[in-house]
Amino acid sequence: MRLSRETLVFVGWPESQFEKFSIRFLHTPTVAQMKLSTSSQPRMNRYEFLKISTGIIGGLTIPGVWGATTCAAETPPAERVGLDDFYLMRGLNALARSHQMSAMAGHLGASLVAGYFLGKQRPNLESEVYDGIQGDLDRVMAGESVFGSKMAKNSKIADSELFEAFPKEKPNESLIDGIAEALEKNIKTPRESGHNVIFASIAIHALKERPDLATPSIVDGIRKLIGLFDNAHPGSGYYGKTKGRIKGNKITLPELDDELPPYTDVKGMVEVVLEEIINQDPKVHVQGYGGLVHVNNHAAAITDLAQYGYPELVPAAIASHHQHLRLWRNLPNVADEFGPSPYAEFNPYTSAYWTSGKVSYDHALLTHRVKTMFGFDELAEAIDDDRKENRAYDKLRYMM
Length: 400
Known about the structure:
Elements: H1 5-10, H2 16-20, E1 23-26, E2 33-36, H3 46-59, H4 85-97, H5 106-121, H6 127-141, H7 159-162, H8 177-184, H9 195-209, H10 216-227, E3 236-238, E4 245-247, H11 266-278, H12 291-307, H13 314-329, H14 335-338, H15 351-355, H16 365-380, H17 386-395
Antiparallel strand pairs: 1-2, 3-4
């Protein structure tokens, strides 16, 4: 889809608004983007942007993007920054080098990028929250993540090397489309619990917000990381003592699931995922497909693909997410074997969580805690439903 000056006039947006919001039209082989200037000129916020873009997309009959009234997560002007640029830049470096270690090594860089943007999403959290998040990320860089060289035992590089700076290069914002092109090749089916979409989307989010960091080495490395998922399976689940753990591509799901109607747009997907978060019950303990953490983060990543200029990827991404969610929902309850699902006493956005002395440093939670907090905000703000968002917020601790 090409969004041109003529297109915006056609759908009824006055030309007087073009200069006001500094819109430029970029034409690429894969997608045309409406780019909002990051200059000091007035900018429309994401809610305004999506009200406009929803009309454009709907008018051009691009299915499966946004439902009715929607808005994507907004990064508000920060009065203070939770984490400084060091974490953003080191996170992108690690994403770009992860392909030298393994596809799952992308967790390390993605967690740093998520931590940086979480500070932008919520600039007024208590200092103990930022300290806790920074502590998590420092542990990741120190080699404590299970997804680094501990998993890729034959890796030729150490965890710390992932984060090192690349030689200075001239940035080129047009290169960012290459990440979307790499994702397009493997987006149609679930890949490793949605990590192909999660890693690609968080990189796109970062580079669109900071195009000055879109250097050839960064983008090419991230493309190679996403390419590692081309032949990946959907993930795996635990099906009890008798069957054990089985990969998702070996599972035959029932044809109909009356409790999970199909969703074909972002709004429908977000509403379903928030309901899953709201309805969590510790008495139900399932293991596999990344758990509800990845159902959340996978969906959040899809909302960002739409927001940051790649709506043509969204219909296939939503269909893949639906398959991911069905695999997770069809897992058996193994509480009799493992006990109830663990959960935190406090919400992770509060100082009480981080100062309780009960913060879990579970082998996977170290990189997933901050990504889930970031993802929840991206997800929740993609619909205009404060009541549902607040109810889900209250249950987020069940994912910690």
